[in-house]
Predict the structure of SC5A6.
Amino acid sequence: FGGAVSETGPTPPLRFTLPMHFTSVDYVIFAILLVASVGIGLFYAFSGGRQRTTQEFLLADRSMSCLPVSLSLLATFQSAVAILGAPSEIYANGTQYWFLGCSYFLGLLIPAHVFIPVFYRLRLTSAYQVWNMKGVGPCGHVTRGFPVLYPSVTTP
């Protein structure tokens, strides 16, 4: 694979270049996926499904079992960036990345056993709905600015 020594000196290693643009096969696959996604959306939009309210649409009318909810949460936490980035992070910096999994496990136990049951009993779907409840007090009004303040403080 290159690097051999000849009479004129070492030969440079061979470089394999990949095309940096879509080929016709890429366009066909992209079009098929796009048409399939639009077709599924249109089918369920016009088939007269059961989803008539936002409660039914966003929360499945609170009638889903544990498995689909768990899979949805898993898909939310595991992004493509994490799947592609974790192996390279471990390769570059060693296995201390493993401790992130421990922190996820411990960090998710508290919300799962403290906050989620309270939200479920109050029929809340977001932590932001707590701010609109009566009796929150002055701290609730102060914390309304946190979603705006946090990115401005943490972004370099």
